[in-house]
Structure formats: structure tokens, C-alpha cells
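Re: your question about Uracil phosphoribosyltransferase

S., sorry for the slow reply, the queue was backed up all week. Below is exactly what I fed in.
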Amino acid sequence: MKDFFEGIAWLFENLLLYPLDALRALELDSWFLANILNWVFMIIGFLAFLYWMKQLKTFNDNDEENRDPSAHSFLG
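Result:
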């Protein structure tokens, strides 16, 4: 059983997490490139936010929402 868990540890340490170790080593040379993964996630989040705002504007322009104060039970 011990060999099984050591095999899982080897898999993660030597194969699956190698790209993150390379980014950590790159930090001394280039801060921007070392944080490229964070920049990618921030860009994806920003694009999702823009898409969400566009969809909200589309529904708002269609006047599909009932804006009467008594339209929702939690408001009245």
C-alpha cells in the first residue's frame, strides 16, 4: 500500500506539477512571465464579466423584467 501512495506522490511531484515548478524558478528572471497563469485567469474573468454585463443590458433593453415593487414576494 505504501508503494501506491509513493507512486501518486512521484506522479504529482515529477510530472503533473512540473510546469508550476518551472514558473516558480522563472520568477527570478521575469516576474511577469512567472505570473502568466494569474494574468490568464484575470483576463478570462474580465471577459466573462463583460459578457455578463452585455447579457444584462440585452435583457434590460427588452423590458422583460417586471419592475413593479410588488412583483417579487421578498420586496413586499
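Residues 2-61 form one domain. Helices lie at 2-16, 18-26, 31-34, 36-61.

Happy to talk it through on Thursday.
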